[in-house]
Amino acid sequence: MKRDVGLLQPRKLSFRQNFHRNYKHFLIFGGMAILGFFLFYFYPIIRTFILSLTNKSLYEGTSEFVGLENYMYAITQDTMFAKSIQQSLIFAVVSGVFVLITSLVLAMLLNSKVKMLGAFRTIYFLPFIIPSFAVGAVYKNLLNPATGLINNILTAFGVSDPPLWYASPSSALFTMILISSFGFGVKMVVFLAALQEIPEEYYEVAELEGASKWQQFYKITLPMISPIIFFNVILITIDGLRSFSLAFVMGNGSGWPSNSTLLFPIYMFMTAFNTPFRLGYAAAMAWLFFLIILGLTLVQFALSKFYVKKDLR
Amino acid sequence: MAERAMHLKPYEKTKEAKTRRIFTYLLLVVFSVVALLPLYYLIITAMKDLAEASTQATMFPHSFALFDNFRFVLSHPDYNIIRMFLNTMLIFVLKATGTILTCSLAGYGFAMFKFPGKKIIFFALLSTMMIPGELLGVPIYEFMVNTGLKEVAFIPLWIASWFATDVFVIFLFKQFFETLPKPLVEAARMEGASELRIFFTIALPLNKPAVVTVILLYFVGTYNDLYGPALYISDKSNWVMANSITIFENLYQSGSSSYLVPWNYVSVATLIAMVPVVLLFALLQKQFMQSVAGTGIKG
User: Fold this and answer.
1) Longest Cα pair distance anywhere in chain A, in angstroms?
2) Whole-model pTM?
3) Which of A7, A238, A251, B63 is most deeply packed, by most CB within 10 A?
4) Residue A129 in 3-state DSSP?
5) Interface test with A, best of B163, B246, B278, B283 (most A CBs within 10 A)
6) In this predicted complex, what is the ipTM?
7) Topology of domain B78-241, per CATH?
8) Which residue of chain A comes nearest to B245, CA vs CA?
């Protein structure tokens, strides 16, 4: 990290010299990033906090300081807030677990010297090329209770009462979890890259010593890729909690049917950016949401001590 | 490996291996079907005529109206596909250019020059990666509305990119510039080249892989973005690709989220929307997978 390029012979430079050789250039090159940090991160966070203590709405000139009232209301009275957080958590955890397992299993299968590896990898990756804003439409078509292929197949196999999928409040969230679970391709590519980096010799030695495939998985594969698993778990959880596009399309922007697909980002979008533009209350909810994400991430960091093995290579 | 194993226990090993092999391929094929089914149904639905597509769940189309469907979609007055595509591309170009320029500069600054408290500054920047957009969106929206910039030239959608706000990209560039051969830079400096000149003529051109990665990720990210347009675009002439499908989803729908969705038109619009991504994927499959594998991101 010692990259003081202006330094030809090692001697202490005065501030003035340092300024001309280093500080000046650092500010020229990095100044925009520091400015951007204050404009687009620091200011919004502070402003969100200030807003959260008021009852401001966008098209009303006046706003009052209400203290922690917004927070108290969200926690104790707003059932929609509780429901959206609960559904976001269910969505993130269930689809996260499903994607994690599926992508890991598929990556391991592909890594076991199968033929046509490239073809399979491309196929699994294909759903990725459907634009996010179209994914909802594509699966709504596929899972349509009356005109969808899936229910047609189910009926052909003698299911007399096929599910209503996204059209019924009792199965809509589950349907959304199922759809987002089909996005295993991206994570699988990440895992496959990690698996291919494990030295072949490890398995050869294990094989010679009579280790079973299960032992090889448990003692070699899992520890070797545990940092990637950790990375993926964090990414999947945060992605899941922040999931917006799919729920926006599936729920027609409002958590349809009967708020059953109302995830937190949708509820916040509705509160802040639809009439009556309750910026103050939305800001308070955003802070609560941030605390939840932060808490979960810290828990994951704590748990990672038990399964992430470092410095194995 | 296999030979040695067979040498140990010839019979059992081969039989066990064979069963495992069959099981492996079975699972791979099952998941291939899962991955391909939506695409298959998308394509055959695009072929059906309106009556079949909106009322029947046929696995093979009875009717063939692919060309009529294309004609209908392309001639719909709201479906100005060229305009929508160019709007999307304009946002993409402004975002990608801003990010590549300002983030590479910042990455170079952090990699090459000393500054008091540089590590703390970098850590502060990195910590913003943990902050969800929900916490930042409200004040920015408020600002855009108050200053009247909300629907001017898509400003809310790209302005932040010109302030090196994508810390991940700064990190990407910084990592690369730290491996830049030092004598190269020293030599240029001895000849009296300015730091900015060194950056633009030597450092940045050597960093094409990172630039390509950013371009690919930003293309997919901008193209797929629904949140930004839903928030900041209302005027029809400003519609982007994300709007192209909703036109047909809501074609026969009056307010309520009810029935008779013309899936054939929706599917055709989806297929058209897929073309740029498919082309990009076909041309740059390797870079595409590497970029995604390195980041695990889909817009």
Assistant:
1) 85
2) 0.86
3) A251
4) helix
5) B163
6) 0.85
7) MetI-like fold (1.10.3720)
8) A134
